[in-house]
């Protein structure tokens, strides 16, 4: 990766000047003066997806200057490096090769002198064989019954992705009941244990490192309960599986070698659904559908790698995000899916974006003096409309957002989907144009009928609130693969331009270490007084009720 300070590039300086010209320009004027704006600023992808960026506070000049920034930051070179397997995860000394997991071309990808594709294909075959056996009922539990429940035990990237995808693709789901347990909170475990029968349940211990506290404790407790019921350690072979890089650790836990699905350290946790971490996905929707997810991802990879930046969807979305985050000083980005199946999508993107680009040190080791990753949040529409949209329309904050919806519903009941999409289109329109559009173009009585000038002030929508619209034909495995990958590459692009390392996550370590030290104090009944007075005071209060 080239190590360049973004704010020192000519493009950044030009953008700064340009911002002064554009900061007060209203979207209404941009649209009124250019009837072709939608035509020029919307992009379709293989007749599956339409992305409209026209409702952004940008001109063609803004786009040109942002593209110059991508050029000045050597984005093209960075993309080639990632795909080639060069170690771009410098602080962990690893390549970043989740793209190899969906390499449908199956061309060689050489790492340390070896082609990694045969190993990837071997694990994919293993996933296929195993998922076929479970789904068909050929694989039996220890008492000879068919498997009906699958429990994924994992957290972070080993949970959020598989959970989000299995939910999003419920329309493709088979008879298996899927459960995900991540939290160390025993309430989650308690609730799970009410729902499953050990004789018909398999457990996937999904942990890249096989050391993560939450996953290991949950797995151990479940193993204990299982053995109480099954009463024979050998029965574990029919019920316990691991997805991990740490094969030896999984074996030590008691998992049979054949039940281990390998992962590699060049797959980042939050980018791992394409690997065996997606085993629960393959079990839930079958391998053929899982493979379609990979195909969608691959097609977006090809688009990202080969398309000129001025038509490159992830690159354009990334640049627009930087424009708001760094020039308009917006702090957040909202992800607003108008499809119940995508209800976990904001949470999923929250991890992949915030864990990747939530960094304040640049590649030089210096503290950055520009904004890096935004705060990602969101909720499924139309629920959000009756909650936080008030602030989006009339609050003091500018919140760029992505509206995502399928044209066709999997469950078309009466007029529901038409009403849903009417809301979807209405919101981006209202955010962008506020009352202005209707004052000029309609005689909506609710606007013109207001006598009281004072009250009118409260009913005023200033508009000029930007959004991207991502419109899909249907949420199917292929389209979901496209969508997830689009965001992965958006995040990558932003990381390159921020000049940070997007593929480590040192920021999660300190809390883990301190919690271990506090826990150790608890179990040794020590009160070591090495915390600040607030933390110590809270621990003392807790101790009063537990000792
Ligand atoms: O919270 C940090 C993290 O390392 C994530 O990046 C990762 O997805 C998660 O923990 C789980 O890690 P593992 O798969 O090793 O259990």
In helices, the fraction of residues equals 40-55%
**Largest sheet properties:** 6 strands, mixed
Low-confidence runs of at least 5 consecutive residues: none
At the first level of CATH, what is the class of the largest domain? Answer: Alpha Beta
Work out the number of β strands.
Answer: 13
User: CATH topology of the largest domain, anyone?
Assistant: Rossmann fold
CATH superfamily of the largest domain: Glucose-6-phosphate isomerase like protein, domain 1
For the record, give the distance between the C-alpha atoms at the N and C termini, rounded to a whole number: 54 Å
Q: What average pLDDT do the residues reach? A: 95
Please give a structural write-up.
The chain is an alpha/beta fold. The chain has 3 domains: 6-72 and 307-498, Rossmann fold, CATH 3.40.50.10490; 105-291, 3-Layer(aba) Sandwich (Rossmann fold); 509-546. It has 22 helices and 13 strands. The protein has helices at 10-22, 27-32, 37-40, 60-72, 75-84, 117-136, 160-168, 186-195, 213-230, 247-253, 279-285, 287-306, 313-328, 345-357, 389-394, 416-433, 436-441, 445-448, 453-458, 477-498, 509-523, 533-546; strands at residues 42-45, 49-52, 110-111, 114-115, 149-153, 177-181, 201-206, 240-244, 260-262, 332-337, 375-377, 401-406, 467-472. A hairpin with a 2-residue loop joins β3 (110-111) and β4 (114-115). The longest helix has 22 residues, at 477-498. The mean pLDDT is 95. Bound molecules: 6-O-phosphono-beta-D-fructofuranose (F6P).
């Amino acid at each position: 990766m080239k190590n360049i300070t973004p704010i020192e590039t000519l493009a950044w300086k030009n953008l700064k000047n340009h911002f002064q010209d554009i900061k007060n320009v209203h979207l209404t004027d941009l649209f009124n003066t250019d009837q072709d704006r939608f035509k020029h600023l919307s992009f379709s992808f293989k007749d599956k997806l339409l992305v409209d960026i026209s409702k952004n506070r940008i001109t063609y000049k803004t786009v040109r200057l942002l593209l110059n920034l991508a050029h000045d930051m050597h984005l093209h070179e960075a993309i080639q490096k990632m795909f080639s397997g060069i170690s771009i995860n410098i602080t962990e000394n690893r390549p970043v090769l989740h793209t190899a997991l969906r390499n449908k071309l199956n061309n060689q990808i050489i790492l340390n002198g070896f082609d990694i594709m045969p190993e990837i294909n071997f694990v994919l075959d293993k996933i296929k064989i195993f998922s076929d056996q479970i789904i068909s009922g050929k694989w039996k539990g220890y008492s000879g019954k068919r498997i009906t429940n699958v429990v994924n035990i994992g957290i972070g990237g080993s949970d959020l992705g598989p959970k989000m995808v299995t939910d999003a693709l419920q329309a493709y789901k088979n008879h298996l009941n899927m459960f995900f347990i991540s939290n160390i909170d025993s309430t989650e475990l308690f609730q799970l244990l009410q729902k499953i029968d050990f004789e018909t349940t398999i457990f996937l211990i999904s942990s890249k490192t096989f050391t993560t506290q939450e996953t290991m404790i949950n797995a151990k407790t479940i193993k204990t309960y299982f053995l109480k019921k099954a009463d024979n350690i050998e029965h574990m072979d029919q019920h316990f599986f691991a997805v991990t890089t740490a094969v030896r650790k999984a074996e030590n836990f008691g998992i049979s070698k054949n039940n281990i699905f390998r992962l590699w350290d060049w797959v980042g946790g939050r980018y791992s659904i394409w690997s065996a971490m997606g085993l629960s996905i393959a079990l839930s929707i079958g391998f053929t559908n899982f493979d379609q997810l990979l195909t969608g991802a691959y097609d977006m990879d090809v688009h990202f790698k080969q398309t000129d930046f001025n038509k490159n969807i992830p690159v354009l979305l990334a640049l627009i995000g930087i424009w708001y985050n760094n020039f308009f000083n917006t702090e957040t980005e909202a992800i607003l899916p108008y499809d119940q199946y995508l209800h976990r999508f904001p949470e999923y993107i929250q991890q992949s974006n915030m864990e990747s680009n939530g960094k304040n040190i640049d590649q030089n080791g210096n503290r950055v003096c520009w904004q890096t990753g935004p705060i990602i949040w969101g909720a499924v529409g139309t629920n959000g409309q009756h909650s936080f949209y008030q602030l989006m329309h009339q609050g003091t904050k500018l919140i760029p957002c992505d509206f995502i919806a399928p044209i066709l519903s999997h469950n078309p009941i009466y007029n529901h989907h038409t009403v849903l999409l009417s809301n979807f289109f209405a919101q981006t329109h209202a955010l962008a144009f506020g009352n202005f559009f209707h004052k000029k173009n309609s005689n909506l009585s609710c606007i013109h009928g207001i006598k009281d000038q004072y009250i009118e002030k409260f009913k005023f929508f200033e508009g000029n609130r930007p959004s991207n619209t991502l419109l899909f034909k249907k949420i199917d495995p292929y389209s979901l693969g496209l969508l997830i990958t689009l965001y992965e590459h958006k995040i990558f692009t932003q990381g390159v331009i921020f000049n940070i390392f997007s593929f480590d996550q040192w920021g999660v370590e300190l809390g883990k270490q301190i919690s271990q030290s506090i826990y150790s104090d608890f179990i040794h009944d020590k009160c070591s007084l090495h915390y600040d007075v607030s933390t110590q005071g809270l621990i003392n209060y807790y101790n009063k009720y537990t000792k």
